[in-house]
Every structure is written in structure tokens, then in C-alpha cells.
Specification:
Helices cover about 40% and strands about 15% of the residues. It is built from twelve helices and eight strands. Helix 2 crosses helix 3 (about 100-110) and helix 2 (about 75-85) packs across helix 10. The protein is globular.
Length: about 290
């Protein structure tokens, strides 16, 4: 994989990439606690299928820059994806693939500027309307305790203490039985600077901040709660320790016609590194059908 820096939506995005420069863009967006390295199995598969696969470090995750405006709402993340499409020379044949926070950015980008994206693929976080009140069941609130901890002033200290063991424990809890130590180490590098760690936690603080002040970001955020017109593939690990399989709801009811939902047995939250061959077979099949 090569690495380059692209400026989009006021951010310097460091990106990993693979594939022919003249191929259609496949934009792959990571989540938390994560980096674009978790797309290391998918990028070459997409390249072999003719795509120019690009996986950026999301805003605030080093070596991408930390935004001066401190904006981390899902509308702004969607605008980042659309701006990256523009900066990377994408066209109407581009596809967008997102995991976790990247999934939420994908829902917004695909619905807000649908002409940019032919197909959308998301994983590990379903459309919010599909979850509904299931998110507030006790078992899911127990899994989601960290979201509420991140609203406190102690969050940065708690995550960084003891060489970021917090990150190791999330990987272990969310993908049971998988050795995520290498991936967790990449996350620690990306969040080592206090401003980057504050940025990653800032995504969660933005969840409770209401609509963004910027009208375009507010519109993109609102679009993320609608059904995008593209056929979409949704993937979820049966053993996900972050978002329980019983919580995701009737996902296909909230996706466009021609969409699919696939549950990956024996996989947790980071299904694309736990079961890469199975996950990537489904993605490439769906993109090339």
C-alpha cells in the first residue's frame, strides 16, 4: 500500500491506497478504536477488482490533521467523505465502505450527495432508525458504557493510562477470541498526541451536542437518518461485543431496494480483520454483481 496526503474539507488526510489510478474510487472509512490499517485485507482485493482503493485516517487521527474548529459530528464526517471523493477524482462509479464511525459517515455521504456513489457498504453500526429503542435495552447500554464515560472530563486520562490499555481491552471485549494487539498498537500511535486522543473522544461528545451550526453539515447529518438510494450491503459480526446482534433490527427495511444484510458467524466487531476472506468475498461480490 502506498501512503499519500490529500487535502479535503479543510483537513490534511493521510491515506493508504492501492490499485490503478484510473480505476473507480473505493473509499474505505474506519471507526474507533481503529485505523485504516484494518482495511489491509480489503484494499488489495479491491485493487484486484480494478478499484482505486483509498483508506484515510479520519479527521484527528494522526497523521491526519486535527481540525481547528473541533467539529466531529456525523454531518461533518459525511462532508469529509464527499470532499475526499472530489479531491481523489472520484466519479459516479465510486463506492463507499464504512465500519463503525465510518459506517455513520457513509450513511450521511450516500444520502446527502448520492450522485457520487454507486454502492454503499457498511459494517458493525446499522442505520439508527433500524435500532430504534433496542439500543436502550440493558445489555446494550452495558456494552455502551464507554460512550457515557467519554462525556466526562476524565475520559482522556482514563483512555491513556497504563499505555492505553483501554484500547487493548476494547479490542478484546468487542472481538472475543481475536488477537487484536497489532491493530490496537496502530491505534495507540494514531492517538498518542493529546490533541488526537481528544479528537477521537470528540466524536462521541458530538453525539449529544445537537445539530451542527454549519447548515451544510446539519443537512448532511439529517440526510444520514434517511434511506440512501443506492443498493447497500450491511455486514455484522454475530459475536459483536460492541453492538449486539439482537440490537441491529430490521436493517434491510431501512436500505434501498437491492440491498442485502449478511451476518458473519464467529466474528465480532472488527469482522473485517477477524474473517477477512469471508467479509471481502461478500463485499467484492456485491460490488461486482
Amino acid at each position: 500500500m502506498d501512503q499519500r496526503t490529500v487535502k479535503a474539507n479543510g483537513i490534511e488526510f493521510a491515506c493508504l491506497g492501492e490499485g490503478p489510478e484510473d480505476g473507480p474510487l473505493a473509499l474505505c472509512l474506519h471507526g474507533f478504536p481503529d485505523t485504516p490499517h484494518t482495511w489491509r485485507h480489503l484494499l488489495p482485493r479491491l485493487a484486484d477488482a480494478g478499484y482505486r482503493a483509498v483508506a484515510p485516517y479520519l479527521r484527528g487521527y494522526a497523521p491526519s490533521s486535527v481540525p481547528e474548529d473541533g467539529r466531529y459530528d456525523t454531518g461533518t464526517l459525511a462532508l469529509d467523505a464527499c470532499a475526499l471523493h472530489e479531491a481523489l477524482g472520484g466519479d459516479g462509479d465510486a463506492v463507499i465502505i464504512g465500519h463503525d464511525w465510518g459506517a455513520m459517515a457513509t450513511y450521511g455521504a450516500a444520502a446527502f450527495q448520492p450522485d457520487r456513489w454507486r454502492i454503499a457498504v457498511t459494517a458493525a453500526v446499522p442505520p439508527q432508525r433500524s435500532m430504534g429503542e433496542r439500543f436502550f435495552a440493558f445489555d446494550q447500554l452495558h456494552r455502551s458504557w464507554y460512550i457515557f464515560f467519554f462525556q466526562t472530563a476524565l475520559a482522556e486520562y482514563g483512555v491513556a493510562v497504563d499505555d492505553f490499555v483501554f484500547i487493548d481491552r476494547l479490542w478484546a471485549a468487542w472481538s472475543p477470541g481475536f488477537d487484536g494487539s497489532w491493530d490496537a498498537a496502530q491505534v495507540k500511535k494514531a492517538l498518542a498526541a493529546p490533541e488526537s486522543l481528544g479528537a477521537a473522544i470528540g466524536y462521541y461528545r458530538a453525539m449529544f451536542a445537537g445539530p451542527p451550526d454549519d447548515p451544510e453539515a446539519a443537512a448532511a447529518q439529517a440526510a444520514g437518518d434517511t434511506t440512501a438510494p443506492q443498493p447497500s450491503l450491511y455486514l455484522h459480526g454475530a459475536d459483536d461485543g460492541c453492538m449486539g446482534i439482537e440490537v441491529i433490527g430490521p436493517v434491510v427495511d431501512h436500505l434501498a431496494p437491492g440491498s442485502e444484510v449478511v451476518v458473519i458467524e464467529g466474528a465480532g466487531h472488527f469482522l473485517h480483520v477477524e474473517k477477512p476472506d469471508e467479509v471481502n468475498d461478500h463485499i467484492v461480490r456485491f460490488l461486482t454483481a
